[in-house]
Design a protein that fits this description.
By secondary structure, this protein is of the alpha+beta class. Helix content is 59%, strand content 9%. It is built from 15 helices and 8 strands. The strands form 2 sheets. Strands 3, 4, 5, 6, 7 and 8 form a 6-stranded mixed beta sheet that branches. A two-stranded antiparallel sheet has the order 1-2. α2 crosses α3, α4 crosses α9 and α7 crosses α9. The radius of gyration is 24 Å and the shape is globular. Bound molecules: manganese (II) ion. The site of manganese (II) ion (MN) has 4 residues, from loops.
């Protein structure tokens, strides 16, 4: 870069004022009397930033600066819900934080809509946040223009663009997935036509993409939200049916879980964790569709998960599980010996728990991290 252009860029540095945290720690939008909830981790970063004399380019400061710039740039803009726009980039950043994304990715999450919607441009971002954040925001902005309306040639072309963006930087897709998840969470504010288009695109493109990247945490929620808006009747019915049977099922699951725990302890296995979890709605529904079954015929709507410290212990725990309850033939899968293409590793089995089949997943802590939050 020549000295002249470096100088001209320097003058464009965005001045961010000190944000003084109000007593209740909620920001109040100036245009609306609306309290903006800030996640605790972000509040802590802001507080530390304001207290410290060293406002250099640490990772934490990158996030705080990104927050301030996004906050000021979006000031006065509203979401379809009527809320201040900034709640959206904050939610996106929060989702990225949750899956353990780096500071640059979180900063890009905060800034992902400023180029599209505000006076700030990509060169401003590069000057203030560096090349890495700029490239991420640029990628997300480009992906924003791509719509997948139907299964046509245009869609194939769009998919191609998406995969090109992924190939250049997979982190762009992380931001895009978090963006889509928050948009799906707030989709009720859009008209029905847009709801349907976005929900369909979510089911056909974004949920499989999250799955492909191994981000279960995003995948199941994207699927359930798409289900809710694409098959509202079925979604409602299933939800009600599950609620009715819940207490019964939970009791059974607790008995199964307690017995399993007891036997794992007496087998000498140390440092394990066992939890019961309901399966997500879309998972149950697609199983009903696939197997042409009624809800009452689908028994394993709950699953147990055992997390141990190393892969040897996975197989030990498996032996205990098969010893405690009768395994169902053909249901055992060893994704530790043979991981899924997205890197997913676990042992899967189904056993007859207290009169009902229950699915059991066994994995190590690090396998669990990868399964929930991706690579
Ligand atoms: Mn967005």
């Amino acid at each position: 870069m020549s000295e002249a252009s470096a100088n001209s860029k320097e003058r464009k540095e965005i001045k961010v004022s000190t944000i003084i945290l109000p007593e209740n720690k909620n920001f109040e939008s100036e245009t609306l009397k609306y309290e903006i909830k800030i996640p605790n981790w972000l509040l802590e970063n802001i507080e530390n930033f304001e207290l410290s004399n060293n406002k250099n380019d640490s990772n934490q400061n990158l996030i705080v600066k990104a927050f301030k710039v996004a906050y000021e740039a979006h000031n006065g803009q509203l979401r379809a819900s009527g809320e201040p726009y900034i709640i959206h980039p904050i939610a996106v950043a929060d989702l990225l934080k949750e899956i353990g994304a780096s500071s640059s990715v979180i900063a890009a999450g905060l800034l992902h809509d400023v180029v599209e919607d505000t006076r700030i441009d990509l060169s401003d971002i590069e000057v203030n946040f560096g090349l890495e954040v700029k490239v991420l925001v640029e990628g997300v902005t480009k992906l924003g223009g791509i719509h997948f309306n139907n299964r046509t040639e245009a869609q194939a072309e769009n998919l191609r663009k998406m995969f090109l963006a992924m190939a250049s930087d997979i982190r762009v897709v992380l931001v895009k997935l978090a963006d889509r998840l928050h948009n799906m969470r707030t989709i009720q504010w859009l008209n029905q036509e847009r709801q349907e288009r976005i929900a369909r695109e979510t089911r056909e493109i974004y949920a499989p993409l999250a799955n492909r990247l191994g981000i279960n945490r995003f995948k199941w929620e994207l699927e359930d939200l798409a289900f809710k808006f694409l098959e509202p009747e079925e979604y409602k019915n299933l939800k009600e049916q599950i609620a009715v049977k819940r207490s019964d099922r939970e009791k059974r699951l607790t008995v199964t879980l307690d017995l399993m725990k007891e036997n794992l302890v007496s087998s000498g296995l140390k440092n394990f964790e066992i939890t019961g979890r309901p399966k997500h709605l879309y998972g149950i529904w697609s199983k009903m569709e696939r197997q042409q079954k009624q809800f009452s015929e689908i028994y394993d709507v709950a699953a147990l998960r055992i997390i141990v410290s190393n892969s040897d212990s996975c197989y030990k725990a498996l032996a205990v599980v098969h010893d405690t309850f009768k395994p169902i033939p053909g249901r055992f899968k060893d994704y530790i010996g043979l991981p899924k293409p997205n890197g997913y590793q676990s042992l899967h089995t189904s056993v007859i728990g207290k009169h009902r089949p229950v699915e059991v997943q066994i994995r190590t802590t690090s396998m669990h991290q990868i399964a929930e939050f991706g690579i």
